[in-house]
Structure formats: structure tokens, C-alpha cells
Amino acid sequence: xxxxxxxxxxxxxxxxxxxxxxxxxxxxxxxxxxxxxxxxxxxxxxxxxxxxxxxxxxxxxxxxxxxxxxxxxxxxxxxxxxxxxxxxxxxxxxxxxxxxxxxxxxxxxxxxxx
Length: 114
Fold this sequence. Notes:
The structure is a single chain. By secondary structure, this protein is mostly beta strands. It contains no helices and 11 strands. The strands form 2 sheets. Strands 2, 4, 5, 6, 9, 10 and 11 form a 7-stranded mixed beta sheet that branches. Strands 1-3-8-7 form a 4-stranded antiparallel beta sheet, with no helix packed on it. The chain is globular, with a radius of gyration of 13 Å. It starts with a strand and ends with a strand. 30% of the residues are buried. The mean pLDDT is 97.
């Protein structure tokens, strides 16, 4: 059974940093594109960052230059380093992949206070 488990969320002041992790199991992690999404209260879920098996990355305009997505295939884990956090980054952050069908983690809450 494929499973994604996020961790690392929390409460941080504006301008601070957090690093999220998403640990995968039950699949061949190294061949999968991994994507971070977020969903703020009352808003639609939006793509934050994607990393391909080769390490190519794509970022939403709103996080470009502040967030960095990376992966450690030996640990079956994808990371999202978030810097210069803003109150508008407050959301539940999810990781997602495809293994026959879309697989989502349970999410981790990030709250940025002003």
C-alpha cells in the first residue's frame, strides 16, 4: 500500500523558516515526480512545488525564490524548505504523487503569524 506521511509543520513568525518532509512507502520513490500542494481556509488547493525524478523543479510564482523542493531517494523522502514565510503562506501542506492513481498525504499545518 502506497503511503505518504508529511511532517514538519508548525507555528512560525513571519520571516521565519520551516522544513517540511514527506516520507513515501510502498512504491519506487526514485521514479516518481513528487509535488507539494497547499490549501488555505476557504481557498482551493494549489500547487506549490514539483520535483521530477531527475531533480527538475517547478515553483508557484508566489513561492519562487523563497521555497526550495528537494528529494533524497535513499530515504524515500521529499522536502520543502520554506524561508521568509508570510502570513499568506498559512495553509495545510500536502504532498502528492501518482502510483496508478493520485496518492495524497494527510497534510501538515503551517501557520505563519504576523
